[in-house]
């Protein structure tokens, strides 16, 4: 019985072989039936030839018997065909079941692989997030540490560079002096060294505003290094509109001039304003009998545009006003282009015609005139004069020669 079961299981596992065997069995059965029929026919013929008297069967019974045999054979053939069809159906169903099981197994394997992939990705994301969080915490700690260090550095710098803005009032030694009261301020380092000295202001409030303006432009780095006519280096502090605020000292090398600028930047940021106004005593020079000539007649001097090499090696342009006897009356600031210098002459002439001059006693005890624009900003400084009368005379000379003098160009520029 076990052997039969094994054979059946084997045929189930190999449906094609089972179909072949069934077909072979059906064919064998058909062959047997055919042989039986032929054998019966031969026996009938032999009986007919033998001279043996037998009892004759009615023909009707004989036909019925043949019909029955025929029906039996057809019934058997149908059974064989039905069995073959059943076996084929079973084999097909078995194949479909096996295919379905295989597909289900593949889907299950895909699900397991996908789940494993998702778990791997989740682990990678979690690990990356953990790493990023650790890096973020490390960066925050580094920033916090740096901030603390910067704060300490700022405190140290503030202590080291605790300079002072000192406002000074120009006081004369003459009770009869009719000069207007002027103020200026200085920037001092923590060791008392003077780093910067401003121009004069007509009021204490103006000096305070001047300190704020200077600090703002120092912080912006609005410095310009130029070469003086003597070949020394000098820094200028400019406003946002490129107007001159103040000038530094003369330095023999560019490096020393740049070092002075850096010192000014460091101390200007933390310096405090000294509320105590310092009196700056100036001795008023004795006046001379100087007669100021009236502005009449024809005065033909010349405006001369000249170029020289700037501190950065590039060419800069400036102009000077000369009287007809060759005396220099006025010298401008530097311009980066020739057209700028030409336009600068037009601006100077317009403000000279409007008499936008201011004469003041300097902190050194001499007189100087300033030419201002319509907004009160400095255009240029005149020379220093020992007496107020000489300074006024210089202003009148500038007025006389500025309007009619032609604009000329230094021949060296045309070569």
Describe the protein:
The chain is of the alpha+beta class and 415 residues long. Among the domains are: 119 residues, Roll (PH-domain like); 113 residues, PH-domain like (Roll). Helices cover 51% and strands 22% of the residues. It contains seven helices and 14 strands. The strands form four sheets. It has a four-stranded mixed beta sheet, with helices on one face. Strands 10-9-8-14 form a four-stranded mixed beta sheet, covered by helices on one side. Strands 4-5-6 form a three-stranded antiparallel beta sheet. Strand 9 and strand 10 form a beta hairpin. Helix 2 runs antiparallel to helix 3. It starts with a helix and ends in a 6-residue tail after the last strand. About 3% of the residues have low confidence.
Identify the notable features of this structure and list them briefly.
PH-domain like; 7 helices; 51% helix; 415 residues
């Amino acid at each position: 019985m076990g052997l039969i079961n094994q054979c059946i299981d084997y045929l189930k596992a190999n449906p094609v072989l089972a179909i072949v065997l069934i077909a072979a069995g059906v064919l064998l059965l058909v062959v047997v039936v055919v042989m039986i029929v032929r054998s019966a026919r031969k026996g009938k013929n032999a009986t007919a030839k033998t001279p043996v008297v037998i009892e004759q069967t009615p023909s009707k019974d004989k036909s019925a018997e043949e019909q029955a045999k025929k029906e039996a054979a057809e019934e058997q053939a149908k059974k064989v065909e039905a069995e073959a069809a059943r076996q084929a159906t079973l084999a097909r169903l078995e194949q479909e079941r096996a295919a379905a099981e295989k597909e289900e197994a593949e889907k299950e394997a895909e699900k397991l692989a996908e789940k494993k992939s998702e778990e791997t990705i989740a682990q990678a994301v979690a690990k990356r997030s953990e790493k990023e969080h650790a890096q973020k915490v490390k960066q925050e700690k580094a920033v916090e540490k740096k901030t603390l260090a910067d704060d300490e550095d700022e405190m140290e710098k503030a202590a080291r560079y605790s300079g002072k803005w000192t406002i000074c009032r120009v006081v004369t030694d003459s009770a009869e002096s009719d000069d207007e009261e002027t103020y200026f301020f200085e920037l001092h380092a923590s060791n008392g060294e003077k780093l910067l000295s401003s121009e004069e202001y007509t009021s204490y409030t103006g000096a305070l505003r001047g300190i704020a303006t200077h600090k703002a432009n120092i912080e912006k780095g609005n410095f310009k290094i130029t070469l003086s006519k003597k070949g020394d280096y000098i820094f200028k502090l400019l406003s946002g509109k490129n107007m001159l605020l103040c000038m530094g000292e003369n330095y023999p090398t560019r490096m020393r001039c740049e070092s002075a600028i850096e010192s000014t930047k460091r101390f200007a940021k933390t310096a405090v304003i000294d509320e105590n106004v310092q009196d700056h005593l100036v001795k008023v020079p004795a006046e001379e009998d100087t007669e100021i000539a009236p502005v009449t007649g024809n005065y033909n001097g010349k405006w001369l545009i000249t170029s020289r090499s700037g501190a950065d090696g590039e060419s800069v342009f400036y102009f000077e006003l000369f009287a007809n006897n060759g005396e220099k009356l006025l010298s401008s600031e530097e311009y980066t282009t020739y057209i700028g210098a030409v336009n600068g002459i037009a601006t100077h002439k317009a403000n000279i015609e409007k008499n936008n001059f201011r004469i003041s006693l300097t902190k050194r005890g001499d007189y100087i005139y300033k030419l201002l624009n319509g907004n009160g900003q400095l255009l240029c400084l005149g020379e220093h004069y020992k007496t107020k009368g000489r300074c006024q005379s210089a202003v009148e000379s500038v007025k006389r020669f500025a309007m009619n003098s032609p604009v000329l160009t230094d021949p060296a520029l045309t070569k």
